[in-house]
Design goal:
Strand order of the largest sheet: 8-7-6-11-9-12-10
Oligomer: single chain
CATH architecture of the largest domain: 3-Layer(aba) Sandwich
Number of domains: 2
Number of helices: 10
Radius of gyration: 20 Å
Distance between the termini: 48 Å
Largest sheet: 7 strands, parallel
CATH superfamily of the largest domain: SPOUT methyltransferase, trefoil knot domain
Shape: elongated
C-alpha cells in the first residue's frame, strides 16, 4: 500500500474532494466525495471504483481494515488540512473520492428484477437527510429504484450520503425529467400513486386499502408543499396515511418509509 504525504491545500486531489463535497454532481471530475471509514467500506463492498483515499496523520491504522486494492492512491495529510475540505461539523479522519454507480432504465426493468417493481419518485424533495433516509428505506423494503425529478436535492450531498448508510451505492437511482419519468413508468405498466396529507385530499385512499402488490410507483413531494399539482395530475390515483392524532402531515422520509413498509407487507403476504 503506497502512501503519499500532502502538505498543501492546493493539491489537485484535495481540491477535487472539496468541490465534490461542496457541489455534489457539479464538481466537473465525475467523482463523488464520501467521509468516514464506514461509508468507504460500504462503497468497496458495492464495488465502486475508489479514485483516491485521504487519511489524517495518526489515522493510518484505519486503512488496514479496509482491504483497499493495492493500486489505490492514498494521501496522508495533517488533520486540519483534511478538515478544511470536509463538510461535517465533526470531521472524520478518513475520506475518499469514488466513482458513482451508473444506472439506466434497462437496469431497473431488467428481466432479472421483480415482475412487480416498487419505485419511489421524488418530486422536489429538498432535505438531504430525508432523501438519504428514503434511499435506505427503499432498499430495506425491496424497492427496485428511486427516481429523482428536477428540483430534488442531489443524492450525493454529504448529509444524504450519510443518511443512506450505503444504500446510495447499491440502489438504482436515476435523475430524470418528469415527462420521461411518467412516460417510462406507463410504458412499463407501472401504476402511479401520488401521496397526499390526510386532510388535503378527501379522494385519497388509505394506504392499507390500496393494492400495492403490482407494479407501483410512489410519488413523493416537497416537504413543505407536497406534490405539485401538475405532477399529481399525472398519477393514476392518490393515497394517504391515516393519522388519528392531531398532526396535519408526516415527515417526508417517515411517510415514504411507512408506505414502503406497507407495500412490502402486502407483497410478503401475497407473493
Amino acid at each position: 500500500m503506497s502512501v503519499r504525504i500532502v502538505q498543501s491545500k492546493q493539491n489537485v486531489r484535495l481540491k477535487q474532494l472539496r468541490r465534490a463535497l461542496a457541489h455534489p454532481g457539479r464538481d466537473g471530475c465525475g467523482l463523488a466525495g464520501i467521509e468516514g471509514p464506514n461509508l468507504l467500506t460500504e462503497a468497496l463492498r458495492a464495488g465502486l471504483p475508489v479514485a483516491c483515499v485521504f487519511a489524517a496523520q495518526g489515522a493510518e491504522h484505519q486503512l488496514n481494515s479496509l482491504h483497499l486494492p493495492a493500486e489505490t492512491e492514498i494521501l496522508l495529510l495533517a488533520a486540519e488540512l483534511l478538515d478544511s475540505a470536509l463538510a461535517t461539523e465533526t470531521p472524520q479522519q478518513i475520506a475518499a473520492l469514488v466513482e458513482p454507480p451508473q444506472w439506466n432504465w434497462d437496469g431497473i426493468f431488467a428481466s432479472g428484477n421483480s415482475a412487480s417493481p416498487l419505485i419511489v419518485v421524488l418530486a422536489g424533495l429538498q432535505d438531504p437527510g430525508n432523501l438519504g433516509t428514503i434511499l435506505r428505506s427503499a432498499e430495506a423494503f425491496g424497492a427496485q429504484a428511486v427516481l429523482s425529478l428536477p428540483g430534488t436535492v442531489s443524492a450525493w450531498n454529504p448529509k444524504a450520503v450519510r443518511a443512506s448508510a450505503g444504500s446510495l451505492f447499491r440502489l438504482p437511482l436515476l435523475a430524470v425529467g418528469a415527462d420521461e419519468c411518467f412516460a417510462r413508468l406507463r410504458a412499463a405498466g407501472v401504476k402511479i400513486w401520488t401521496t397526499a396529507a390526510p386532510i388535503a385530499n378527501s379522494g385519497a385512499k388509505p394506504a392499507g386499502h390500496v393494492d400495492l402488490t403490482g407494479p407501483v410507483a410512489l410519488l413523493i413531494g416537497n416537504e413543505g408543499n407536497g406534490v405539485p399539482e401538475a405532477l399529481a395530475a399525472q398519477a393514476d390515483n392518490a393515497l394517504t396515511i391515516p393519522c388519528p392524532g392531531p398532526v396535519e402531515s408526516l415527515n417526508a422520509a417517515i411517510a415514504t418509509s411507512i408506505l414502503l413498509y406497507e407495500a412490502s407487507r402486502q407483497r410478503r403476504a401475497n407473493p
